[in-house]
Structures are given as C-alpha cells and as structure tokens.
C-alpha cells in the first residue's frame, strides 16, 4: 500500500467516525448554540489537540501501553468516567437549580481568552481522558502505515487528516448551532439543550464505566 492509498483509505475510515454523532458533537453543538463562539472553537481545537496527541503517541508506540497494561488502562478509564460524570451532572444540576430560582453553576462567560481557554481545556480533557480513543489509534493507525515508511511522520500525517476532517465537520456544526441560536436562547430551549447534553455526557460516562 502506497502513501497516497493509505491517506485516502484512512480518510474514509475516520471520516465515517467523525460523522457519527457522539460526545464531541454534543459538546460542540451545546456550546455554540448558547452563543459562546470563542468557547465553542476552544472545544473544537481542544478535541483535535487530543486527537493529535493520541496519534503521535500511537506512532511512537506509547499508547500501546493502554493495551499492554491493565493498570494504565483502568486508571485512565476511571479518570475519564469521573470527568464525564462531573461535567454531565454539572449541566443537569445547574438546570435544576436555575429552574428552582437558586443560582447554579453556569458555563464560563464567552469573554476573550477565558472563554476560548475554558473550551479548549474541556475539549482536550474529554478527548485525552477517553482511553477508547487511544485504543482505536493503537488498533487502526498502524494498519495504514506503509512498510518502510517512518512511523512518526506518517502517523502524524494520518492524524492530520483526521484533524482536518474534524475541523470541517465542526465548522458545519458551529454554523448550524448559530443558525438556530435565536430559538435556543429561549429559557425553555436552553433548559432542554442542557438536559439533553447532560444526559448524553453522563450516558457516555456510564458506558465507559461499564464497558471492559
């Protein structure tokens, strides 16, 4: 398999993965729909930063430790579970408290660097604390590295394809969310958005906790 064939084949595989609705989609849509544009792009770039780190680590063979070491995998898995449950319950409990008239936790305001930085941290942590992303790269990435080609440069090139597709799809999601932002600014719509996103995030956390 040549380099060009490997790139096109990998683009098809990760393209289908990118289009599949999941945790990343939910976080991006919610953040953008609430009018937090800088923070939404922070989430997008944080997620893709995590993807690039996983890709480079897989190319170097570092993330193979997740499949070789049960302790390493379990430690990362439960850290991911705790983080997902925390942000999911924060969304759900915040809506309950606001609904009862009691001030509840609300996302950081979309002001300057703070909004972008908060989004980047959330996106990066969500991605890096998901060991399944690392296992995916360990299992899939080596199959697309042609024989005789240096692993690290080729692995980074392949991961860049994934990141590029992720950025394009994220731009579509952000544009869609901003198009319906007027409707989503209504208190009832925002409550529904936060509840749905919170349920999705908690669901992913519980799935990660119960999946071996």
From TrEMBL:
Key words, A-Z: Cell membrane, Membrane, Transmembrane, Transmembrane helix
Keyword Transmembrane helix among UniProt keywords: yes
Domain of life: Bacteria
A cellular-component GO term for this protein: plasma membrane
Listed transmembrane segments: 38-66, 78-97, 156-180
InterPro entries xref list: LeuE-type
Membrane topology reported for the UniProt record: Multi-pass membrane protein
Localization: Cell membrane
Predominant location: membrane
A single MF term (Gene Ontology): amino acid transmembrane transporter activity
Protein's UniProt name: Threonine/homoserine/homoserine lactone efflux protein
């Amino acid at each position: 398999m040549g380099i060009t064939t490997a790139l096109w084949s990998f683009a098809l595989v990760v393209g289908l993965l990118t289009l599949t609705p999941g945790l990343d989609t939910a976080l991006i849509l919610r953040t953008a729909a609430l009018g937090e544009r800088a923070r939404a792009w922070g989430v997008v770039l944080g997620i893709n930063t995590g993807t690039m780190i996983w890709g480079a680590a897989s190319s170097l063979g570092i993330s193979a430790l997740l499949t070789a070491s049960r302790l390493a995998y379990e430690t990362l898995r439960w850290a991911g579970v705790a983080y997902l449950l925390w942000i999911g319950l924060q969304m759900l409990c915040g809506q309950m408290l606001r609904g009862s008239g009691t001030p509840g936790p609300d996302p950081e305001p979309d002001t300057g660097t703070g909004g972008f930085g908060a989004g980047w941290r959330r996106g990066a942590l969500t991605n890096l604390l998901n060991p399944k992303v690392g296992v995916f790269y360990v299992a899939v990435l080596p199959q697309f590295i042609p024989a005789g080609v240096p692993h690290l440069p080729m692995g980074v090139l392949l991961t860049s394809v994934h990141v590029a597709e992720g950025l394009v799809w994220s731009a579509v999601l952000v544009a869609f969310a901003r198009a319906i932002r007027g409707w989503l600014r209504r208190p009832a719509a925002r409550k529904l958005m936060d509840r749905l996103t919170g349920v999705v995030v908690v669901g992913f956390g519980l799935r990660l906790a119960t999946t071996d």
